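Try this one yourself first.
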């Protein structure tokens, strides 16, 4: 299990770690719907595009994973900035 996501050893290509921009107010949430997450190429790209004043934060996430309700979610591994 990684960050609340159960990984399938048989299919590691389904759920992977990504660097991303997350468009939310930072708080204690650990999972985000797909429409709030914008995957980017690397950590440097995420940090360069981050704009905390506009609630756009750089992070490392795991996903997408399908929730029991059928939504595609990304799980927070770590924020890239404080």
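Now uncover the answer:
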């Amino acid at each position: 299990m990684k960050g609340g996501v159960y990984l399938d050893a048989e299919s590691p290509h389904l759920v992977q770690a990504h660097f991303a921009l997350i468009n939310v107010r930072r708080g204690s949430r650990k999972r985000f719907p797909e429409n709030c997450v914008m995957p980017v190429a690397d950590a440097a790209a995420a940090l360069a595009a981050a704009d905390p004043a506009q609630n756009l934060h750089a992070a490392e996430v795991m996903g997408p994973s399908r929730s029991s309700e059928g939504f595609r979610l990304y799980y927070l591994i770590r924020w890239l900035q404080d």
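Discussion: The mean pLDDT is 88. The two ends are 25 Å apart (CA to CA).
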